[in-house]
Amino acid sequence: MVKKLVVFLLFLAACAPEIPIETGPPIEVHFCEREDCAGLLVGKLSSADDAACALYHVTQPAVLAALENAAWITDEDQEGPLMHNKFCVFDGQEVWTGSWNPTQGKKADNVIVIQSSVLASNYLDEFDELPGGYWRVKKPVVSYNNYLIENYFCPDDDCRENVLEELQAAKQGIVFLLSWITDDEIIRQLQREDIIVEGVIDKSQHAAIERLPFANKGNVHHKVFIIDGKTVITGSYNPTKSGDARNDENILIIHDPAIAREFLEEYAYLIS
């Protein structure tokens, strides 16, 4: 990751048009076990003039009602591979994404909201290609409030390789908050002894718990890695073969220590 980040920064300094630069409100981070994410989404949908949403599964009545005036798709609307995204774009300017499905269930989940027209354009392109069709993200890196954000869609953009590169570059530690993991190489990165690795896995994942016996067990739907206390990977992607190579998914890699701190606080809450 260090090599990749240096390249990105050199591009940023030498040829700014190669990496879009945006400023805007602080990134919003919400944790849905403790916050009313359904109410937040209803508010966003109700105040937007235009909205496009790709949501794996929706059962919340208030959300269903608020979606009546939006363009939206669920996995039930798509033939073929699983459509596992959980994102919306509001007025072509604001992106809502993360691990949370607007359903009646209650697990530890997260939502990220970013007012970035560059990211919004990426997500609208992805929405337009659903169902079916694959092409690579046009602007995978943006500088937002002076911090780099990477944006990838699976299986188009090699999500697994991008996640692995971040994990392999960890120098101090990795914290993971995971609902599901079966990827052997990613598990090996979580077994490293040269750095501090800790985390929480959903209590139903017995095979992963056997391979990562130090992991805390919880009621978790996150798909999150926090690296060296300064980078967060989040989105809809579970580290599995289907998550990388078959399903429609999305991830954000956010290089911002303030966002990392918020996710570390979530981890502390989950193991308290």
Molecular structure report:
The protein has 272 residues and is of the alpha+beta class. It has a single domain (2-271), classed as Endonuclease, Chain A, CATH 3.30.870.10. 31% of the residues lie in helices and 27% in strands. It contains nine helices and 15 strands. The protein has helices at 2-14, 37-47, 61-66, 117-129, 159-168, 184-189, 206-211, 241-245, 257-271, and strands spanning 21-22, 28-31, 51-55, 71-73, 86-90, 94-98, 110-114, 141-144, 147-154, 173-178, 196-202, 216-218, 223-227, 231-235, 249-255. The strands form two sheets. Strands 1-8-9-15-14-13-10-11-12 form a nine-stranded mixed beta sheet, sandwiched between helices. A hairpin with a 2-residue loop joins strand 8 (141-144) and strand 9 (147-154). It starts with a helix and ends with a helix. 42% of the residues are buried.
What's the layout of helices and strands?
Layout: H1 2-14, E1 21-22, E2 28-31, H2 37-47, E3 51-55, H3 61-66, E4 71-73, E5 86-90, E6 94-98, E7 110-114, H4 117-129, E8 141-144, E9 147-154, H5 159-168, E10 173-178, H6 184-189, E11 196-202, H7 206-211, E12 216-218, E13 223-227, E14 231-235, H8 241-245, E15 249-255, H9 257-271
Parallel strand pairs: 1-8, 3-4, 10-11, 11-12
Antiparallel strand pairs: 2-7, 3-5, 5-6, 6-7, 8-9, 9-15, 10-13, 13-14, 14-15
